[in-house]
Predict the 3D structure of the following.
Amino acid sequence: MTTATDVEKKKPLAGLSDSGAYQKLLAFASLIALLIGFSIASPNFMQTSNMIAILQATSVNGVLAVAATLVIITGGIDLSVGTLMTFCAVIAGVVLTYLGMPLLLGVAAAIAAGAFCGLCSGTFVAKMKIPPFIATLGMMLILKGLSLVISGTRPIYFNDTPGFDQISRGSLIGEIFPALPIPNGVLILFLVAIAASYILSRTVLGRYTFALGSNEEAVRLSGVNTDAWKMRIYALAGAICGIGGILIASRLNSAQPALGLGYELEAIAAVVIGGTSLSGGRGTILGTLIGALIMAVLTNGLRVLSVAQEWQTVVTGAIIILAVYADMARHKKSG
Amino acid sequence: MTKLVDMTGIEKYFPGVHALKTVQFDLFSGEVHALMGENGAGKSTLMKILSGIYQRDGGDLVIEGKSVSPTTPGEAQDLGIGIIHQELSLMNDLTVAQNIFIGREPRKSFGRLDEAALNAQTAEIFASMNLSLDPKTLVGSLTIAKQQMVEIAKALSFRSKVLIMDEPTAALNDAEIAELFVIIRRLKAEGVGIVYISHKMDELKQIADRVTVMRDGEYVGTVGAAETPISQIIAMMVGREVNEKPLDVPDLGDAEVSLEVSGLNRGKEIKDVSFSVQKGEILGFAGLMGAGRTEVARAIFGADVKDSGTIRVHGQEVSIKSPKDAVTAGIGYLSEDRKHFGLATGMNVRDNIALASMDLFTGTGGVLNDGEISTTAKGYIAQLGIRTPSDVQEVRLLSGGNQQKVVIAKWLLRDCDILIFDEPTRGIDIGAKSEIYKLLEELAEQGKTIIVISSELPEIMRLSHRIAVMCEGRLTGILPGGKDTTQEDIMHLATQRAAAMQVTGAPQ
């Protein structure tokens, strides 16, 4: 008798609990609110050039955040996305500038290096059972060190590779629609996001990504080789970081070996603001994109309003805490 | 002797369950009062009410002549009631003394801890127990038996007059049990009243003064431990009338042996277990909690690594090192803990059904055919009668019985013909239970091989064509199913401890 009421009690919550949607809506509404707020506060904000600057600023962080999203949905965390990005940029520098290889080979080498490093992290986590936080923390430091060692602590410039800087800075869209000079970096971010979104929602890899985060032991007991799938996901995330490395190197027309630390936290912040649960099992790429945009809009808007850099950081931190609190409060209700 | 505890007419309801029905229990100072009953009889619930963890829904609780209603364990402790749980709740990295006084450490000014007083007070308690143990020892370095002593010391440090011990010997060896009994007798002599929950019959004779038996949340009776034969206590424990129709054991004749396990070993949990099951047969696994039934299932399935033993499927020896190997061999395991081991509860029905068979729906480039998954899932939803608004409903929103059916669908889709059900109806209400039973019988008729592990004897009796009984990691016997086997027969095998050396299956 009481069981029946139990089931009924759960029913009205079912509507509320359409997990990602609510948070995404909240995040999207916050993004719109920020855009409107800054437009009112400053006439300079809603300029096309400023909008493009925001998008450009989102591109690298966005790509890294997409990579982090994949790992976080499995219930893991990847602290190495920032220094892996730099490492891949350095690898591209070595292949293109030191070895003088063609452009495509440099790009391929960077992505392959990313995938390999991701596979290493994945092996530490899946096979050696090292907690993801520790495994990727170690990887973060290893890669930071290796980038400095390989480059001799000096930036590697891509002056000998014509067209390299166009990867991020050029604008294919601008050539077709001159009114919309959206940089290629942004285009690449969207392509990466669409691909990742497709993988997550339509492929077996994506389905297992969610399943691992939802209940890894149940998946293992279903006869699935969970270790192998987890390694694949980390490798995919690594490859995406490789794309991030190409983007940042192209934008700076150089591989800056000292760069990278701190990017992982920005990426994770974007993921969290976008409603992906750090405990795994749920999250969306669209949410992550919105999260990355919120961070970029915030930084840009505060700068346009001439708020001091120090305060921008404070506000970003507060936004993260608010976003996660909103998520937790909602989760508790439906849990 | 003064009456320390008097519980009368105790009622307790949980959602969907009337857990305690006018139960009574009393305890005098200086006695050991054993509380017996099958798993789920309500012993722990009753003791949780006494120790303030649960609140009663009816009846009276009188402690030393005063009617009380403790609402927290803390309040119960203030009334002099201490409980030692089955799973020890100690912090391994703290010292013995720090553990005993956790949360009420003696302090000096400015909140500084007074370690000297802490250790002195602990030493005092140990002295009163006549226990030689350094208060500064780390708990993690102690044996389980010594840790148990620390738990007892902790309970005594609250000046407990009533000590509840929930299966205190479950993890102890014979020497350690003897050690524990010395302490219990000393406490008795000092006037402490002890409630002793155990499944082990031989211990009762050694330590208990009185025995109260519970069954299905009801009070059955209280008898003297010394003068009551064990067979009578067992009869009191299982004596419910079985109003299910008698089981029709099919004659399988020389049907193929689909699973044969021989010489299975894993540490202390599984000791030389061998058995075989035929196609179309339902083999029940009975035994008390911790007898090793789940461990056997997990070892066969490759979820835990076995030390030794061979597994033959359809006559072929198979090497099973991981669940993946088992699934490939056609073995599916349905865990007792669906939420942790059976379902990805945050995912929807169709993904859970497809979880073990994603390769069937994977096209080029790893792209999933969601339409196909949906069609297949809908087929199973109809076939098994899974009550869900749609195939994309999250499984956590389904009832226990329907969740179980989703797991069954997962293995049927994977085409597993050997299915191991671990407590298939745990957490499932009565109506859904008989549906699951019918489903298992149908599966057997279709030629699947079914193993059912259950702690509920009526469930074992209702389903099993043969009944394997385990005790402490050993297979103590295999009984025929049907009306020739009584619950008493099973209980005898289930309590047949290695040291007792009783004659196999001798019915009383």
Observations:
- Chain A touches chain B through 33 residues (CB under 8 Å).
- Strands of chain A lie at 156-157, 254-255.
- The CA atoms of residues 226 and 244 of chain A lie 27 Å apart.
- DSSP finds 14 helices and two strands in chain A.
